Amino acid sequence: MMAGYTPLNTLKPVAENIWIVDGPSIRFYGTPFSTRMTVVRLESGDIWLHSPTKICDSLQDEVAALGPVCHLIAPNWIHYAYIAEWQKAFPKTCAYAAPGVVKRARKHGIRLRFDEELTQTPPAAWAGQIDQMIVEGSKVHREAVFFHKASKTLILTDLIENFEPDKLGRFLRILTRWGGIQDPDGGMPRDMRMTFSRHRDRLRASVQRMIGWGPERIILAHGRWYDKNAVAELKRAFRWVL
């Protein structure tokens, strides 16, 4: 079992114009994972949702009260589960997919509407406000990462996972420690690292760019996120490639 980051399904302020939402746990290959969405209000007033969590009426109302919900982000090949729910609630949104998302969804018989593919260049809607890049080096895991400039917040999904042992059952404490994803030394899952083994130089370049952005905090999709010392945490988590 895994304890969640209560309260769930509600906005939690991070800095000005940026919030997180801790969602209910999901199961991935039989293992429960906590979930987390990042919400940004752009200078236009439009709302940008990264890795949307499961929607409910109260959360829908809270997010809608911030401004018009316009952008839905599926940041990697395993983070698209609730895109359709948010599209149904907000039909005028534009959905963006990282490389590999559409292919995997179709493989699992899931038909989703995506309007644009995420690239190394931010679209006009958030250019100058949120930097982005596709982390290179793996044919399997191609994740879009984002940097909200005004709040100096780096937004990751699965490149770092950081599960707190006191929120886990005995089996998951063993599993997460073996996998290199347990707080206080969370990092890239061991199996994911293997997919970068032939092109570590590309991953290294991506990590160095993240460090160069000079983030103050890092939001993660799974586990305890880092509200301070972001650069030091990046250097620690990726010491195996730096």
Describe the structure.
- The model has no long low-confidence stretch (mean pLDDT 94).
- This protein has a single domain (11-237), classed as Ribonuclease Z/Hydroxyacylglutathione hydrolase-like (Metallo-beta-lactamase, Chain A, 4-Layer Sandwich).
- 25% of the residues lie in helices and 24% in strands.
- The chain contains seven helices and eleven strands.
- The strands form two sheets. Strands 1-2-3-4-5-6-7 form a seven-stranded mixed beta sheet, with helices on one face. A four-stranded mixed beta sheet has the order 8-9-10-11, covered by helices on one side.
- The protein is α/β, with parallel strands linked by helices.
Topology of helices and strands:
Layout: E1 11-15, E2 18-28, E3 31-41, E4 47-50, H1 57-66, E5 69-74, H2 83-89, E6 94-97, H3 101-107, E7 116-117, E8 130-134, E9 144-148, E10 153-155, H4 170-178, H5 190-195, H6 200-213, E11 217-219, H7 230-237
Parallel strand pairs: 4-5, 5-6, 6-7, 10-11
Antiparallel strand pairs: 1-2, 2-3, 3-4, 8-9, 9-10
